[in-house]
TrEMBL record:
Keywords: Signal. The lineage of its organism: Bacteria, Pseudomonadati, Pseudomonadota, Gammaproteobacteria, Oceanospirillales. It comes from Halomonas marinisediminis. Residues 1-25 form the signal peptide. This is Transporter.
Length: 367
């Protein structure tokens, strides 16, 4: 089997892990002088994470332990005051330095129900750590700066995900493969409104889940062109609105009078997801991937209800643009075990700085 006949491709989250394996046609006895019919290769491309590939064969189970680390650093200078001239500012400068680290250990199972249908389940455990330091210049003080340090962490079961992938066509005669995907994310993790807070409403720990159900339909295209595979994915994430009904503490009006305010309905912004790239086989055991992914996340709408007056105030967040360059490397230890390392480099302001992922898919036949 040449390197053109077997391509094992690793791609970092959140798009694809691809394993392309043409099945060699068994030799059959043919009459003398008659050329055997040319066997058309069948590609088995395993799905992974949030997007799908050409599916796991029927009766094949893939168990995939995964460890992921991501880091985000925010350094921001803000000014509150007035500008008298272009060079004269009257007010207060505030310097904010935030470091966020996320550690996720998960186990993903993918089962080939038929040669065209695959079911998937992912169970993550999340640990998050955040260090924030805010510096405000003041006139009275030894250093002339007032510093506020805050350290938060949180760990628990994350949001369990369920997915189904269906191969829409056979990809013959040079046509690309098309795969329909449907992913559902639960709320088993601790959401932003599930964590402990102090009397002022400030969090005492970090959330490990989004706190809202989501449904993501998507479609994947794969175009084998030995020794490479080109891929693209387009999806839309529906975040379901929910009624939180959680009280806020120590909220006062402009006159300093306490208000009885609760968080009412929260509608998280939906997201459009796009990814594309190329996977290239170096030899029958080793391959690498280069790609790009971008999430366009809409505004989150939050309703605040004054219980005393019955008035509702709606507040919307800013949109987010999360774009990252993705690099992947895959090595096949044997036909059943692969090692996959992925690196994600954030290139937009809203993206994490770096995300490193290590996976080891292990395959077995169950029926």
């Amino acid at each position: 089997m040449t390197s053109y006949q077997r391509v094992l491709i690793g791609v970092t989250t959140p798009f694809l892990f691809i394993s392309v394996s043409p099945l060699m046609a068994q030799e059959a006895t043919q009459p003398v002088g008659q050329q055997p019919p040319e066997a058309e290769p069948q590609f088995n491309v395993q799905s992974m994470a949030e997007y799908g590939g050409v599916l796991t064969p029927r009766g094949r189970l893939i168990l995939e332990p995964e460890f992921q680390y991501s880091h985000e650093s925010i350094n921001r200078m803000t000014f509150e005051g007035v500008s008298v001239l272009s060079t004269l500012l009257i007010g207060v400068f505030t310097a904010q330095d935030v470091d966020r680290d996320n550690y996720t250990a998960s186990l993903t199972g993918r089962l080939g129900v038929t040669d065209r249908l695959e079911l998937e389940m992912k169970v993550p455990y999340v640990y998050r750590d955040e260090n924030e330091r805010v510096n405000v210049p003041i006139e009275d003080g030894e250093d002339g700066v007032f510093s506020l340090d805050r350290e938060l962490s949180g760990d628990s079961l994350g949001d369990i995900e369920l997915a189904a992938h269906y191969q829409l066509n056979r990809g013959q005669n040079g046509m690309p493969f098309f795969i329909g995907n449907l992913r559902y994310k639960t709320t088993t993790g601790n959401g932003p409104f599930d964590i402990d807070r102090n009397s002022e409403g400030n969090p005492l720990e970090l959330s490990t889940g989004t706190g809202f159900h989501s449904i993501e339909p998507s479609i994947t295209m794969l175009l084998p062109s030995a020794p490479a595979v080109y891929f693209a994915n387009l999806g839309y994430v529906f975040h379901l609105e929910d009624s939180v009904n959680q009280s806020l503490s120590n909220v006062n009006d402009d006159g300093g009078n306490p208000l009885n305010v609760v968080v009412g309905d929260v509608d998280p912004g939906d997201a459009v997801r796009l990814s594309f790239g190329m996977a290239y086989s170096i030899n029958p055991r080793t391959s690498f991937t280069l790609g790009y992914k971008n999430d366009f996340i809409g505004k989150t709408k939050t309703d605040y209800v004054n219980v005393d007056t019955g008035t509702t105030t709606s507040v919307q967040s800013q949109t987010l643009n999360v774009g990252s360059l993705l690099l992947g490397w895959n090595y096949s230890l044997n036909p059943d075990v692969n090692i996959n390392v992925g690196l994600e480099l954030g290139i937009t302001e809203d993206a994490p700085d770096t995300t490193l992922t290590f996976r080891m898919p292990i395959g077995m036949n169950v029926f």
